[in-house]
Amino acid sequence: MAPSIRLSPAARSLFDEPLAIAVQGLGPRQQVTLRTSLRDETGQLFQASAYYQAGDDGELDLARCPALPGGSFSGLEPMGLLWALQPQKPFWRLVKRDVQSPFLLQLEVFEGHGERPGRLLAQAQHERVFLRDGVRRVPVREGRIRATLFLPPGNGPFPGIIDLYGTGGGLPEYRACLLANYGFAVLALAFYNYEDLPKEMKEFHLEYFEEAVNYMLQHTQVKGPGIGLLGHSKGGDLCVSMASFLKGITATALINGSVANVGAVLRYKDITIPPLGVNPKCIKVGKSGIADIIDALNNPLEGPDRQSFIPLEKAECCFLFIVGQDDHNWKSEFFAVEGSKRLQAHGKEKPEIVCYPGAGHYIEPPFFPMCAASMHLLFGKPVMWGGEPKAHCEAQIDAWQQIQAFFHKHLTGKPSRTSSKL
């Protein structure tokens, strides 16, 4: 019997779902190298490889067989070939630009171990898709809003969430659509560097975000009385500002967010919140040319920088802080703890804070490979994001469950079936 790759699900799976990988038809205890490849929409190649030895029966099941040292990872890692994918171009991050098309994963099995792969023994292709069948993608251009709404299959109304990314700008849709697969109506909202929105991050007006909140609250497919907010990085502090000043927000989840306004002036009616000061002297640049900006931001508890602290005690919602303890973009854990102190000092409910040791800044949906460093739009050079690949991958899996459970609890009143594994 010729060697073959067995996948489950066989042909396609959701990107955030596990994929079972096995090889059959090998010789007893045969040594092989497994390699995965994936190209993003710009054509950039991501690869991972691992060394394995088949069992006495010539079977190799990644759920039972540990990878040997020397490849992209070692040990028992059934999903290692996906989370260990690394770009062949330095400082390149895997993002999904068009959620309506899948990522095509190539799997190959080569003879032997070593730098140069031996003879190709077997290969397979697998589609990693972003939209579950029946999820509707609706471009939104109402008033000033530039967004995409994802609606789950079936008859609503559904609990509603607005999803915001960070300083990259544009309109990333992949987290919003993956979340919609689990029964949420999710609005991926652009706020700069997209279509006719401002090109640069200089000044934001909360009235724009208020328009988006009202759009969701009035939508027939969105279940009231309030909605949820999900923000990563700069999107996190925008969500804190929305929760603090706008009506109709029930639950706010932040992924490595800040409780101080960062990077741009924020205005709402007659209120102005200045951005937190930056001290360029605190940026450390290593021999590799990668900057560590962890200490660049001023402390929002001291001097004039206190004006940048967002008055989150005004919020009428519950908070969840997801924290990567190895975040090198900024001090996410410090921000979460100070936000918690501020809320409790004003008699508000203590927020949930979930900390992940070994996780960096970009905590994405499950199985996105960790990005250790990439270009930072505001600094104009590559910066380190932190994280250790295996711990970061585990954090992404758990955080995804925590976020869904948090929104199920506060937007539907029903606890979800998930529980923390870390």
TrEMBL record:
Domain annotation BAAT/Acyl-CoA thioester hydrolase C-terminal: ranges:
205-412
* UniProt domain Acyl-CoA thioester hydrolase/bile acid-CoA amino acid N-acetyltransferase: residue ranges: 16-142
One GO BP: acyl-CoA metabolic process
Give the classification, highest ranks. Eukaryota, Metazoa, Chordata, Craniata, Vertebrata
Q: Which InterPro entries match?
A: AB_hydrolase_fold, Acyl-CoA_thioEstase_long-chain, BAAT_C, Thio_Ohase/aa_AcTrfase, Thio_Ohase/BAAT_N
Q: Which gene encodes it?
A: Acot1_0
| Gene Ontology MF term list | fatty acyl-CoA hydrolase activity
Identification of the protein by name: ACOT1 thioesterase
Per the record, the similarity remark reads:
Belongs to the C/M/P thioester hydrolase family.
Keyword entries, A-Z: Fatty acid metabolism, Lipid metabolism
Pfam families per the UniProt record, alphabetical: BAAT_C (PF08840), Bile_Hydr_Trans (PF04775)
**Is Isomerase one of the keywords UniProt gives this record?**
no
Check the record and name the Gene3D superfamilies matching this protein: Acyl-CoA thioester hydrolase/BAAT N-terminal domain, alpha/beta hydrolase
Domain of life according to the entry: Eukaryota
Identify which residues the record assigns to the active site: 233, 327, 361
